[in-house]
Specification:
The complex is a heterodimer of chains A (about 475) and B (about 220).
Chain A: H1 3-31, H2 33-36, H3 41-44, H4 53-67, E1 73-76, E2 79-82, H5 87-92, H6 100-103, H7 141-145, E3 151-153, E4 160-162, H8 225-245, H9 257-272, H10 276-289, H11 292-297, H12 299-328, H13 334-339, H14 344-371, H15 380-407, H16 411-414, H17 420-429, H18 434-455, H19 463-477
Antiparallel strand pairs in A: 1-2, 3-4
Chain B: H1 16-40, H2 45-54, H3 57-88, H4 103-116, H5 131-155, H6 157-160, H7 167-196, H8 207-210
The chains are: A mainly alpha (about 475), B mainly alpha (about 220).
């Protein structure tokens, strides 16, 4: 035989052997060689392609060889715990067409024991602020999404997870794969009741609102009717202001609102597409963002105002940045650090900026009520604005302290909240049931926040819109005011 | 200040809203064309170069959908403006200022052809919009909606196949691709030809940017 002939025979032989092996493994998956006591190497040592239906079926048939049988159990503290996965549960499960080892990533090895549990985050990303509050970053997916009522606080990393024991410390089976309907808020009450042991507030709280984006990472929803009402009042105020502006005449037009809007939009269009836009932009950066005109009047007043304004602006920009980052890369390195209130950067930055705002408010209060310089004409509206922002920040800090206290975050992690953590220690002196008080504090902060938004177009805080607009109009019409009051 | 010197009687052809919509659609449409062609003709060298630049097909798809939402948003605003024009401003949907085709367009077309062949001494005097602009407008209006609807079917196939048979997705794919080619060819050849290379307005008809009916 020629060399070619030998090679042909060898290849044919190899193909026949491989086909035989493949056939053997397929057949043995059906007949379950493990149970007959005569396992063949390839029963276990193979890697079905779990991205195909056939591979999923093969992989699951292998697992079900044991886990579909009632005698599949293990012994914990002398008590048998079933490891049988009910067929009905698997059928109703949305993961019905996934391989077991898709989620249980570390079980296909020897010894056959999982270190990590099921891995949801291989496919799913973390929830945003609208679905579950940020503290739920410290809650395992299974703790909410699985039916078992028993949850515990992991002492290692203070995460909330499903417990392997019930309330009487008897071992329980977690083999039931049925998922909870988490849209039913009743399912939240397995943690959120007054005597829970895992540091959950005693009530289920609504999500933050889109309005909260002024200072916090927020979802794109209203969250609670009080925020909806606040937003409605805000809109009415804005429309009323716009209507008031358009009562006057525009370029000589007195009557038609359509003509007035056309003429003013014409002017805006012509300014945007002219060289004047550059001087306007320069003015916007210097006079609006860096508040040059206030600085010219007094360094003290500028410092006081900037403490409040710049800190709120940075928190607003940071929240927007977080929203964008979370939208694009929820599983990246940045998003979890930005949405987690306990991560060092976020905890420290939020406390620092909150402190700046509070210092600015305190400074203003001292100016207004104690020093009383000539230029300060204390008006009711100014006092209301100071009261709302000051209360909002104070409640925020106390809420943060209560959150750290209730959730029991260890000091080495919570310490970055350099105001929240000491406050939590102070709160802990009072032996109150903070779990039950926390929801009231949350609503108090939320209501004052809603009040802040609703009040924007009416009182003193209207200057946030009016003053920049006045600057722009002055720049456009060439009026230079040396001194403004 | 020069901007305030507009008198209320200045002849304005396009309002600020329309100028703004045109500007947005100009960029939105170009974005759609570039990303869409790169996805549709993905094996070609320019498409591969573009994909390399923006980081892969998933980014192209994302950009394509972004541009689609913005562009179709303009179509919706434009449709609302039509209602506002009729009911808010009590304007007429027909007549010399209207974009709606009329008998005069047929006469203009005949007249224009006659002018091209030397049978008439002068070109026809068009109303506010000529028959060419009307054809372009309505082709684009129908095309935008076709693209929007078929695009939505391709974006949410699971949702649509609950009510429609599966081959509608294939149908949408075919329609989306060929309608896109048609729209791109019309935009980049006929539209650009009409607004740049007609002898009366060469090098460019700037009225959609300045709003005025003639260049200053």
């Amino acid at each position: 035989m020629s060399a070619k002939g030998w090679m042909g025979t060898a290849i044919a032989g190899a193909v026949i052997i491989l086909m035989g092996l493949a056939g053997l493994s397929l057949v043995s998956a059906e007949t379950d060689a493990l149970e007959t006591g005569k396992p063949v190497c390839l029963d276990c040592h193979r890697q079905p392609n779990i991205h195909t239906n056939e591979g999923v079926a093969t992989a699951n048939a292998f697992c079900n060889g044991c886990h579909a049988k009632p005698e599949c159990r293990r012994t914990v503290d002398g008590k048998a715990v079933s490891l049988q996965v009910p067929v009905s549960a698997a059928k109703e499960n949305p993961h019905h067409y996934s391989a077991c080892i898709q989620c249980h990533t570390d079980v296909a090895r020897s010894p056959h024991k999982s270190q990590t549990g099921a891995q949801c985050r291989v496919c799913h990303s973390v929830h945003g602020e609208g679905t579950a509050h940020a503290p739920h970053l410290r809650v395992d997916c299974q703790a909410c999404h699985f039916k078992s009522k028993f949850v515990e606080l992991d002492p290692k990393n203070s995460n909330v997870k499903l417990a392997h024991i019930d309330l009487e410390s008897k071992p329980i089976s977690l083999a039931d794969h049925t998922l909870t309907d988490v849209n039913d808020l009743k399912s939240c009450e397995k943690c959120h009741f007054s005597d829970n042991r895992i540091g959950a507030p005693a009530a289920v709280l609504p999500s933050k609102s889109a309005l909260c984006i002024l200072c916090h990472n927020s979802p794109l929803s209203m969250g609670h009717p009080i925020f909806g009402a606040a937003f409605f009042i805000f809109l009415v105020g804005v429309l009323a202001t716009l209507r008031f502006w358009y009562l006057g005449s525009v370029h000589g037009e007195e009557n038609s609102l359509h003509r007035k809007i056309s003429l003013s939009s014409e002017t805006i269009w012509n300014i945007i597409f002219s060289r004047q836009i550059f001087s306007l932009l320069k003015m916007a950066v210097l006079d609006i963002i860096f508040q040059r005109r206030i600085l010219k009047e007094s360094v003290g007043r500028w410092s006081m105002h900037s403490l409040i304004f710049t800190a709120i602006l940075i928190r607003f920009l940071l929240s927007l940045f977080t929203a964008v980052i979370f939208y694009f890369h929820p599983n990246g390195d940045w998003a979890p650090a930005l949405i987690d209130k306990n991560s060092p950067f976020t905890a420290f930055t939020n406390d620092l900026l909150g402190l700046f705002i509070l210092l600015g408010i305190l400074w203003a209060v001292v100016q207004r009520f104690i020093i009383k310089p000539v230029h300060v004409a204390t008006e009711k509206q100014d006092n209301i604005a100071l009261l709302i922002i000051g209360t909002l920040i104070l409640l925020g800090f106390f809420l943060e302290g209560a959150r750290i206290l209730v959730t029991g975050i260890p000091a080495e992690m919570a310490g970055y909240s350099f105001i929240g953590y000491p406050l939590s220690k102070i709160l802990s002196i009072f032996g109150l049931s903070w779990k039950s008080i926390y929801p009231y504090m949350w609503y108090a902060h939320g209501i004052v926040g809603a009040l802040f938004v609703a009040y924007l177009p009416f009182g003193k805080m209207r200057h946030i819109f009016n003053t920049p607009l006045t600057y722009i109009l002055e720049e456009v019409s060439g009026v230079r005011k040396e001194k403004r009051i | 200040m020069q901007a305030t010197s507009i008198t209320p009687d200045a002849p304005i052809r396009f309002s600020v809203l329309h100028r703004l919509l045109h500007l947005v659609v100009m960029f939105g449409f170009t974005g759609l064309a570039v990303t869409g062609l790169s996805l549709g003709l993905s094996s070609t060298a320019p498409a591969r170069g573009f994909m390399w630049l923006i980081g892969g097909a998933s980014h192209a798809a994302w950009l394509h959908r972004c541009c689609a939402v913005v562009t179709y948003g303009c179509v919706v605003i434009h449709a609302f403006w039509f209602l506002y024009y009729k009911f808010g401003l009590a304007g007429a949907w027909t007549g010399p200022d209207s974009i709606v085709p009329s008998l005069k367009d047929l006469k203009d077309f005949k007249h224009h052809l006659a002018y091209f062949f030397g049978l008439e001494k002068t070109p026809p005097r068009f109303d506010k919009f000529s028959y060419m602009e009307k054809i372009e407008y309505w082709a684009l209006f129908i095309g935008m909606n076709t693209m929007g609807i078929t695009g939505l079917v391709l974006w949410y196939p699971e949702c649509f196949t609950r009510y429609l048979p599966g081959f509608f997705v294939n149908l949408a794919q075919v329609l989306h691709f060929y309608e896109a080619l048609l729209a791109i060819v019309v935009k980049f050849f006929i539209h650009i030809g009409m607004v740049h290379f007609r002898p009366e307005i060469y090098p460019a008809d700037t009225s959609i940017f300045t709003g005025r009916s003639h260049t200053e």
